[in-house]
Structure formats: structure tokens, C-alpha cells
Design brief:
The complex is a heterodimer.
Chain A (H helix, E strand, L loop, with lengths): L6 H10 L3 H23 L2 H17 L10 H19 L9 H6 L14 H19 L3 H11 L5 H8 L3 H18 L1 H11 L1
Helix pairs in contact in A: 1-2, 2-3, 2-4, 3-4, 4-8, 7-9, 8-9
Chain B lengths: L2 H10 L9 H12 L1 H17 L11 H15 L2 H6 L3 H19 L1 H5 L10 H22 L4 H5 L5
Classes of the chains: A mainly alpha, B mainly alpha.
């Protein structure tokens, strides 16, 4: 019966049966996507990592009752999104996204010089572009943000996103439609740059 | 393909319909006849590329070690009873919800059988009670969905 299951679900079933190595494999495979998804949702790496730890603890706690009724990633990201949305609601009123200086002080790698050959001016321009992207995503309503992050960065299809968010596929299409439309408007200055670079 | 269909497809896919799909081919054909939609398509694709500026981060070095420690603590704190309880947890949640429903019916029977009952107007007190009841059901649903171990949650353990 397990032969027809996706490999991740099979691993999780082994975790259920007490195989800790399978949990390690799942952790190794998914910690980076989970941390990055949470980082883009909450825009703070320390909080993202704390939430990611909670995600994997919940997965581990739930192992004995795990049933592969949905794709493993759908189940995993449902837990992840639930925690991210709760964290965002808890932190409402706090500063939503960090300034360039604050982010650099927080040790966030994208704002650190990535390439020693770049001069300072190029680096500042690049940093400013990245801040624009972060701000544009942070400005999206929570569900739109979650949908677009799963679609763009996790490459989830509509039905998977619907499974994670607990809504219909048509609702997901609508969320993505509005999110991409807003991002196009807010990032139009970057988009022009991108177009010029690609010509 | 109509203009509305083209716009819908461009926007909901961020300008990236599944490659080599029929709808992508149809869209590309349509764009030759619609400069306005072509501009939208190109803008949306450029926006998509701009989003790539946000590179991934690596989890910090202590992430795995810290998680392993927490998992080990969790394993150590699990009791024989908690393990045996796990398969019954969904039934427990449903049972608790049923119990709450019965309690709500029983305790609020007098107010429903009063002279104003037929009007079916919900008083402020009833409203507050219903909200509290709904919140309890939401909590149960969430616990059930994420299979949180109430015993482990209640047990005093290392934070």
C-alpha cells in the first residue's frame, strides 16, 4: 500500500514507526524551504528560524497520528503557514519590515556585501532594489502574500496552495491575480530596469 | 483566447504560464495581435524577475543542533499514556465538541422557552455565550487539525 505513496509520505510513515533517521532526512530536505518561506512571510530571520523550529517540533509531535491523506508538503506548509499567520497577527502594530541598517544589523545575508568585486555604489543600488521587493511583498495582505510566496518561490501549483490555505482553487487564482497585479504596480521601477537589462 | 482570458492568465501566473502548455501557446499567439496585452505580459515577467532579487538565506549554524535538542527533550517528556492517547485524540475532540453542544442546549433551555423565544432574538448574554462557544470549537478544530498533544502542552517541561 505504501508503494503508491510519495517518498516524503513514506518517510513520514517511517518516522511514525519510530525511525529517527527518516525525520533527519525530512528535516534536511525541508528546513531551508521552510525557513525561507517563513523569512519572507515575517521578514525577520531570527523569528523565521524560531517558527521553523516550532514547525518541525509539531511535525514530530504529530508523527504517531500521521496519516498520508494529503501531499506531505501540503501538510507541512499548512502547519508553517498557520504559524506564520499567527505570528504576523501577534506582531501587528510592530514595525513590519526592517530598514536597510536594521536588517544589516540583524545579520541578514542578502544585505551584506555578496561580492567583493562590486563597488559600494552598485551594492547600495542592489540593496535599495531588494528593500523595494521586501516592502512590496510585506505590503500584501497576509493570504495574498502566502499564496504568492508559495507560487513564486516554492513553485506550488494552485491545488497545493489551496490545500495549504484551506480555500478553493478559484480563490487561489483570485489571490494570485490580485497579488501579482499589486506587485507589478509597486515594482514597476524595478521591472523597467529588468527589461532594459534583458534587452 | 479573449482579452480577458489573456489578462487573467498573465496575472494569475505572474506572466509564467506552465511552459509548453496549450494555454501558453494560445497566449503567445494572442499577444501577437494585442500590443497592450504583450506589454502587460512583459511587465509581469519583469516583475517576476525582480522578485528573484530576494535570494534565499541559509538557516543559522545552530539551527539543527537546537532543533535536535528540542526533539530529544520532547521524546524524553512523552509518556506512555500520551502515546496511547494519540490515536484517540480526534475522537476526544469530537466528543468534547458534542459535550459542549449538549451543555449549551441544556443550560440555555430556560431562556429559549421563555415568552420571547419565538421571536428568536438573541440577547446580548446569549450572543456572548455563542461567541465563547464558537471560540472553543475553533480551538478544538485547530488542535485536531495540527494534532497538538494536549498532554504534552499541559505538562510542565523545559521551554
Amino acid at each position: 500500500m505504501t508503494a503508491a505513496l510519495e517518498p516524503d509520505a513514506q518517510l513520514m510513515l517511517r518516522v511514525r514507526d519510530g525511525d529517527s533517521c527518516s525525520f533527519e532526512i525530512l528535516l534536511t530536505k525541508y528546513r531551508r524551504p521552510v525557513v525561507n518561506y517563513l523569512y519572507r512571510m515575517v521578514q525577520n530571520q531570527a523569528i523565521a528560524e524560531e517558527l521553523a523550529q516550532e514547525v518541525f517540533l509539531r511535525v514530530y509531535r504529530a508523527r504517531t497520528s500521521y496519516e498520508p491523506t494529503a501531499k506531505f508538503t501540503t501538510w507541512l506548509f499548512r502547519i508553517t503557514t498557520h504559524l506564520a499567520l499567527n505570528s504576523l497577527r501577534d506582531r501587528k502594530g510592530e514595525k513590519r519590515h526592517q530598514s536597510l541598517d536594521a536588517a544589516a544589523a540583524d545579520g541578514q545575508t542578502p544585505l551584506e556585501p555578496a561580492d567583493g568585486r562590486r563597488n559600494r555604489e552598485e551594492q547600495l543600488v542592489e540593496d535599495a532594489r531588494l528593500v523595494s521587493v521586501r516592502a512590496a511583498i510585506a505590503g500584501l495582505p497576509e493570504k495574498q502574500r502566502a499564496a504568492v510566496l508559495m507560487h513564486k518561490y516554492q513553485e506550488f501549483d494552485y491545488s497545493q496552495i489551496a490545500g495549504v490555505l484551506g480555500c478553493s482553487v478559484s480563490a487561489v487564482k483570485s489571490l494570485l491575480f490580485r497579488a501579482y497585479e499589486t506587485l507589478r504596480e509597486r515594482l514597476s521601477h524595478l521591472a523597467e530596469d529588468q527589461k532594459q537589462r534583458s534587452y | 483566447m479573449t482579452r480577458e482570458q489573456a489578462i487573467g492568465l498573465i496575472l494569475r501566473t505572474g506572466g509564467h504560464p506552465p511552459p509548453n502548455s496549450d494555454e501558453h501557446r494560445e497566449l503567445l499567439k494572442f499577444l501577437d495581435a494585442s500590443p497592450e496585452c504583450r506589454k502587460l505580459y512583459e511587465d509581469q515577467r519583469a516583475t517576476w524577475q525582480a522578485l528573484d532579487l530576494w535570494e534565499t538565506v541559509e538557516p543559522s549554524l545552530g539551527f539543527d543542533r537546537c532543533l535536535r535538542e528540542r526533539v530529544e527533550e520532547l521524546s524524553a517528556s512523552r509518556t506512555w499514556f500520551a502515546d496511547r492517547l494519540t490515536p484517540w485524540r480526534p475522537n476526544f475532540a469530537v466528543g468534547l465538541a458534542g459535550l459542549l453542544l449538549v451543555a449549551a442546549t441544556v443550560f440555555h433551555q430556560p431562556s429559549l422557552s421563555g415568552p420571547g423565544a419565538k421571536v428568536a432574538a438573541v440577547s446580548g448574554e446569549d450572543q456572548a455565550y455563542l461567541e465563547e462557544f464558537n471560540r472553543a470549537l475553533d480551538d478544538i478544530e485547530m488542535l485536531s487539525e495540527f494534532e497538538i498533544d494536549p498532554v504534552a502542552l499541559a505538562a510542565p517541561g523545559p521551554s
